[in-house]
Amino acid sequence: MPSTVEEEVALMKDFKKIRNFPTVIGAIDCTHIKIKKVGGDASQYYINRKGFFSLNVQVNICIIFFLNFITISAMADGVRY
Q1: What is the model's pTM?
Q2: How confident is the model at residue 27 (pLDDT cuts 50, 70, 90)?
Q3: How confident is the model at residue 64 (pLDDT cuts 50, 70, 90)?
Q4: Which of 34, 39, 40 is nearest to 78 (CA)?
Q5: How many angstroms separate the CA atoms of 18 and 51, rounded?
Q6: Alpha helix (H) ranges present in 20-72?
Q7: 3-state SS assignment for residue 73
Q8: How far apart are CA 22 and CA 14, in angstroms?
Q9: Cα–Cα distance between 49 and 54 in angstroms, integer?
Q10: Total structural domains in the chain?
C-alpha cells in the first residue's frame, strides 16, 4: 500500500494511464472457482447462482500496473456474491 501522498499520486497516474480511471489507487475483483461437489449438510452453500459448486475468490490489487497483489482470499463458499 502507498505510504505517502507521492506514492498515491503515482498509483493514480498508473491507473489513469492504463484504463483511464482517475483518482484510483487499487481495485477489488471476485470470481467463482469451480470445485468438485461438496458432501454433507453444508453442500448447499457451495452452489453458486449459475448452479455449480464453487469457491468465491476475492483479489485485492494495488499497483495494478505492475501486477502486485496485496491479498487473495478464497474463504467464501460459492453461494455468496
Answers
A1: 0.51
A2: confident
A3: very low
A4: 34
A5: 35
A6: none
A7: strand
A8: 9
A9: 10
A10: 1
